Amino acid sequence: LDHLSKLNIDEGRFGVMKAGLLNIYVEGQNLLNLCLKTPTHDNLHEWRKSTKDFYYLTNSLSPIWKPVFQAYSKEIKLLTDLLGDVNDYFELNHYMQSLVDNPYDFTMLLDIIDTNRQNLISDAYQLGRKIYAMEPDSFASQFKAYYSAYKKTC
Q1: How far apart are CA 8 and CA 64, in angstroms?
Q2: From CA 63, how far away is CA 4, in angstroms rounded?
Q3: What's the distance, CA 86 to chain centroid?
Q4: Which DSSP state fits 120?
Q5: Percent of the chain beyond pLDDT 70?
Q6: Cβ(64)–Cβ(119) under 8 Å?
Q7: Is 129 helix (H, G, I), strand (E, B) or coil?
Q8: pLDDT per residue as tens digits for the range 12-23
């Protein structure tokens, strides 16, 4: 199902595709930087949502160069999964702390949850720095070169 080969996007009209791609990329990059400075639950959740958008976009563009885009999409998916697990640990911690009338001491469990969550956040930052490493203009230029080469083979 190669939907891209049917699109009539020449060099002059590439700007529309580039703008959308850049918006999603820059949003993810900005949210990563925000999370590095202020790692709140809401910021991490917004970064996850943005990264999911980026995943869906890169996955849909995989026909341009399947091995490269599929590998890139796989890493982006891994990042969304890490951030999803971070959210799950946050929710679990929140739930455990809401059990105020419970006679059991959950201190050790809460410490384990927090440690695991912090480890996942660290892993997400490490992967996110790789995924969003390029300057936006360089990212767009690289994508344009891939797309131009792809269109010549259609």
Answers
A1: 14
A2: 7
A3: 13
A4: H
A5: 88
A6: no
A7: helix
A8: 666 777 888 899
Judge whether residue 35 has pLDDT over 60: yes
User: What is the rounded CA–CA span in Å between residue 24 and residue 31?
Assistant: 11
DSSP class per residue in 47-112 = HHHHHHHHHHHHHHTGGGSHHHHHHHHHHHHHHHHHHHHHHHHHHHHHHHHH-TT-SS--HHHHHH
Question: CA of 50: how far to CAs of 45, 75, 80, 100, 152, in Å?
Answer: 9, 14, 9, 35, 31
Tokens 């590095």 -> residue: 36
CA distance 112 to 136: 38
Residues 6+ apart with CB under 8 A from 123: 82
Tens of pLDDT, residue by residue over 65-120, are 889 999 999 999 999 999 999 999 999 999 888 876 776 778 888 899 999 999 99
Which of 27-30's residues contact partners 24+ apart within 8 Å by CB, and which partners? 27/53, 28/53, 28/54, 28/128, 28/131, 28/132, 29/132, 29/136
